[in-house]
Amino acid sequence: MLPKPAKFWTPKHWASWKPFGIGEQYPNNYWEVFRAIWLSRKQLPYAWNILNKGVCDGCALGTTGMKDWTLDGLHLCNVRLRLLQMNTMPAFDAEILEDISPLQTQKSSQLRDLGRLPYPMIRQRGDKGFRRITWDEALTVIANRIRATTPNRLSFYITSRGTVNETYYATQKAVRAMGSNNIDNAARICHSPSTAGLKSTLGAGATTCSYKDWIGTDLLVFIGSNVANNQPVTVKYLHYAKKAGTKIVVINTYREPGMERYWVPSIVESALFGTKFAEDFFLVSLGGDMAFLNGTIKHMIANDWLDQSFVKNYTAGFEELKTALASQSWEELEKLSGTGRDRMYAFAKMVAEANKAVFVWSMGITQHECGEDNVRSIINLALTKGFVGREGCGLMPIRGHSGVQGGAEMGCYATVFPGGKPITLENATELSQKWGFEVPTTPGLIAPEMINAAHQGNIDVLFSVGGNFLEVLPEPDYVETALKQIPLRVHMDIVLSIQMLVEPADTVVLLPATTRYEIPGGVTETSTERRVIFSPEIPGQRIGEALPEWEVFMELARRVKPDLADKLSFPNTAAMRQEIAQIIPQYAGIQHLKQQGDQFQYGGSHLCFGWNFSTPDGKAHFTPLTPPQKELPPGYFFVATRRGKQFNSMVQERKDAITGAFREAVLMNANDAAKLGLQDGDRVIVKNDLGELPGKVYLAPIQPGNLQVHWPEGNILLDKTKRSLEGVPDYNAIARLEKRD
């Protein structure tokens, strides 16, 4: 049993003795509540029901209403409150799209505030804007274009924001019925390296533990992850973890203020005096995580701090790892990590002293060229002490979007079928027999490859559900050029985005979508901890002619392949869940989810429980890893892109409420600034051969030689050719800094 949180107040964990942290920089969560009430004032009963009955469409923590399965009490964060407006706002007047020139100067945040997209719209080359059409006209245009080309010249992309399992499943089935595997979703850009790393070493492709394991474990480690910003409800978990005696540490390039202390609004003690979270920060240089972790393991080997019994009986490859580490000098590891061996020793000692530990990581680990090996380096460390498959232990790639986990598992992926099965002739044949039509046998194009193909004139149709390639992929000018060359672009969403306004090569069609709360029959979401949760339909306003995406894709596939019409139809979402349970074994149980509160956690509370690993030899595998060699030319900096007061690329405020930094901030070390004669607030340009980003110096506790700029603004500095093995763009760069007049 894990220790329980102390029932009494614990002043040693307080962030400040000043009531309510007066004068400190942190989010005003109470203001967010009043703001949400004001913005949804015309739909308050509907807004309340969304919060109280629906499954959150924000991050992937997973709730039923405002409750979860980790802690008692209400859970509500400012990200969900910001998204509430999009679920309750009215439609915009379609006439504003008749001439889009005034809209083309606006940012995505301004376009969102216009309201919901109400009707199908079409714009053809030479038109000033869009005109309203019927659903039949829209689907006829799209189906005719698809039939007129070949499957390899089609591309489909689905974002993860609010997208549900049923939408993913129906969409990928429809696309494959049309003969293509060119379908991808945002899960790849976030955590496909995590899935690959976990599968290759443990045989399990998802988070191995539960959120409950955070509270009372000996050591909770966050690597390249800022949950206070991206999964705000977790600060409540961290507060109680501290009260249960858990030691929290962070490995990052920046001493994130929200991971250091936070005022949790729903806990009286923390709301008054705040909570100190991280007991130590281990600052590394960009891309230095693997070198730091390799050094940590070297210390553990040298001091015999391993669980020798576990390593001997339940793992393979340790001797190969040991040999690889012996060839890596301390000087090399210090240089590549950006920190000293004494800091590696301090962390190793923490790991050695822990009987139980949980490792949490996010896109600071995965979004690198070596993302898969970054993940494996974390797994290597966890395996030295058997920190997997038991209570209070685990490996957790935490998800930032409510739809990400299910997206890949439903098979909405260019490189795998439903259930994560690789695209092979054998698996395609099996799926063809179950579905009753021929399934394509070769892997499709992933999102960056779709854009490359479009740039070369090899894509005839792009159907994008949500998403905004202009703001999520590197080199936005290149992306825009590619979009302008696609004869038919279809954008289905609940609001406008700047991607929709890119000039058409021939035709652009806009389709209005429903939110998850408007889908008849209710839907399901899969959380970070593998919990499949039912979200009921919420009675209330409905927007124009908006339809669920899954219905649109099924109808489109029937028009393209009328001979398969009887195999491409679901009477409702419940019938779809019946099929999902048959096609995807780990989702058996989804067919029984029917009302609010219904849920199950596939695989149980812990994957690999009892150290049973689903690998060919039944053992967990260490991986010998050599840290990437990164040379920093004189006068250059490592540049990481960061999120602040935003939900993925959806910027919600100019100022990050946790750091106090504005969007134009260039976070840098004070000593680096002094060497360049720069002061806080000075105007600068971050530049490399790809682009220039104007900004202002923001002095911060960041590792020397490193800068951070906000994403997606910083995409102009990123190299589109740098991707991980799973196709994840490297959202980091090397650039120089110059002072502006």
UniProtKB/TrEMBL annotation:
<dbReference type="InterPro" id="IPR006657">
    <property type="entry name" value="MoPterin_dinucl-bd_dom"/>
</dbReference>
<feature type="domain" description="Molybdopterin oxidoreductase">
    <location>
        <begin position="116"/>
        <end position="558"/>
    </location>
</feature>
<keyword id="KW-0411">Iron-sulfur</keyword>
<feature type="domain" description="Molybdopterin dinucleotide-binding">
    <location>
        <begin position="638"/>
        <end position="732"/>
    </location>
</feature>
<dbReference type="Pfam" id="PF00384">
    <property type="entry name" value="Molybdopterin"/>
</dbReference>
<keyword id="KW-0408">Iron</keyword>
<dbReference type="InterPro" id="IPR010046">
    <property type="entry name" value="Mopterin_OxRdtse_a_bac"/>
</dbReference>
<dbReference type="Pfam" id="PF01568">
    <property type="entry name" value="Molydop_binding"/>
</dbReference>
<dbReference type="InterPro" id="IPR050123">
    <property type="entry name" value="Prok_molybdopt-oxidoreductase"/>
</dbReference>
<protein>
    <submittedName>
        <fullName>FdhF/YdeP family oxidoreductase</fullName>
    </submittedName>
</protein>
<keyword id="KW-0479">Metal-binding</keyword>
<dbReference type="InterPro" id="IPR009010">
    <property type="entry name" value="Asp_de-COase-like_dom_sf"/>
</dbReference>
<dbReference type="InterPro" id="IPR006656">
    <property type="entry name" value="Mopterin_OxRdtase"/>
</dbReference>
<dbReference type="InterPro" id="IPR041953">
    <property type="entry name" value="YdeP_MopB"/>
</dbReference>
